[in-house]
Write a structure and sequence with these properties.
Helices cover 54% and strands 13% of the residues. The protein has 168 residues and is α/β, with parallel strands linked by helices. Helix 1 crosses helix 8, helix 2 packs across helix 4 and helix 6 packs across helix 7. The protein is globular and about 45 Å long. The structure holds shikimate-3-phosphate. The site of shikimate-3-phosphate has 9 residues, from loops.
């Protein structure tokens, strides 16, 4: 399939890049978190609080399988933890070209400071949590990716240009 799938840690710019890329390529944009919220009628923090993370991870895998049924080309932004489950990595790659937006922990921290929508970062020391989680996930992101973009310090325009050049 010829979708473009954006992966990367929370705050790496998947959604902002994806929306702009979808306008540029004139194809629909979807976000796995929003699909899950629509399906369940609940916001992500509420799903985590009421059902737990394992349940949310099952929903992510189900969402990937459903996306595979689509026929038209889409830009798909994914939840930051989605590539961590091993079975999701081949599912992601089968959907199209997987682009990993790689950023430094400090960039994420600055962007998400004060954010309350990410349950996994609601802790005493979010900077340390970001560093630990990123280090633990790095191999999974790389394994799932066809294209890796070092996105720190790049504008969205530059990121989109690089994606276009590298998926040609
Ligand atoms: C998560 C990332 C979030 C969302 C959930 C869990 C993670 O998505 O899926 O809070 O495990 O990294 P974003 O990457 O869009 O913030």
């Amino acid at each position: 399939m010829n979708n473009i799938i954006l992966t990367g840690f929370m705050g790496s710019g998947k959604t902002s890049t994806g929306i702009r890329l979808s306008r540029r390529l004139q194809c629909p944009f979807v976000d796995t978190d929003r699909l899950i919220e629509q399906e369940t009628g609940k916001k992500i923090p509420r799903i985590f609080a009421e059902e737990g993370e394992a349940y949310f991870r099952d929903l992510e895998t189900k969402t990937l399988k459903k996306l595979a049924e689509g026929r038209e080309r889409r830009i798909i932004s994914t939840g930051g933890g989605l590539p961590v489950r091993p079975q999701n990595r081949p599912l992601l790659r089968a959907l199209g070209t997987v682009v990993y937006l790689c950023v430094q922990p400090g960039t994420v921290y600055e962007r998400l400071r004060g954010d309350t929508g990410r349950p996994l970062l609601q802790c005493e020391d979010p900077a340390a949590r970001i560093r630990e989680m990123m280090a633990a996930r790095e191999d999974a992101y790389r394994e799932a990716a066809h294209v890796i973009i070092q996105a720190d310090g790049m504008t969205f325009e530059e990121i989109i240009k690089e994606i276009e050049e590298r998926i040609r």
